[in-house]
Design goal:
The protein contains 7 helices and 5 strands, in the order H-E-H-H-E-H-E-H-E-H-E-H. The chain is α/β, with parallel strands linked by helices.
Length: about 230
């Protein structure tokens, strides 16, 4: 399976839920005017039910386009089929790659980079924030090693790009003995409420800073226009 070949999401139970969510997102692009667009997989979808979403991100005029289980190719398909149309967000937050089971770190990074390039081409005004993949499983988990390698490649990818930033959301999930606490990830992969607050505080700080800077630039421009 290719990480960069756009593909509709799976429908293993014949319920059409994935396509229904995509259609709902398309409807929201016509009605909403978000300042922050959240795009990705289960980490983004479940963020919607977290306390930090209610206390911080919701207040930033956020729109959540996360679908649990999405691989890079599924997000690519969604972005090529309308989910970036009619919108003009100031910032886009992306988290994807965790669900690319069976792909090498190189293939996953290639898929994430293809999504970044597509977002930049369709939404050039938006500042793009890419989230690192979180550690998971036990200390010897091959998926933990895989995620670390993807993060290393993405670190190199964003270097020198002033409109794309990689944010490390691993704020101390791996303990001294290299295990992960169930208080942070109840199944050693999915974040708890505590885990979401811990992982997304750096994102909250960056978004707050960027919004303040952007509002300051608008204020200066308006003042200069009034003076003219």
């Amino acid at each position: 399976m290719s990480s960069i070949a756009p593909k509709e999401g799976e429908d293993p139970h014949g319920e059409g839920r994935w396509m229904s969510m995509h259609q709902r997102f398309l409807s929201e692009t016509r009605d909403a005017e978000p300042e922050v667009l959240w795009m990705g997989d289960s980490l983004i979808q479940n963020l919607f039910n977290s306390r930090i979403w209610d206390t911080s991100f919701c207040l930033m005029h956020s729109l959540n386009f996360g679908i649990s289980g999405d691989r890079t190719e599924n997000v690519l398909w969604r972005l090529q089929n309308g989910e970036l149309e009619n919108l003009s967000p100031k910032m886009i937050v992306l988290s994807v790659g965790q669900e690319n089971y069976g792909d090498t770190p190189e293939k996953i990074a290639e898929g994430v980079q293809a999504i970044c390039a597509l977002i930049r081409s369709k939404q050039p005004q938006a500042f793009l924030i890419v989230l690192t993949l979180l550690p998971r499983g036990n200390p010897d988990s091959p998926l933990r090693q895989r995620n670390r390698k993807v993060n290393e490649m993405m670190t190199e990818y964003v270097k020198g790009n002033s409109r794309v930033q990689l944010v490390n959301i691993d704020t101390g999930f791996v303990q001294v003995d290299n295990t992960i606490s169930h208080h942070d990830m109840f199944d050693y992969m999915s974040l708890t409420q505590k885990g979401y607050s811990k992982a997304f505080e750096p994102v909250n700080e960056l978004l707050t800073q960027l919004l303040q800077e952007m509002e300051g630039e608008v204020g200066r421009t308006e003042a200069e226009g009034a003076a003219d």
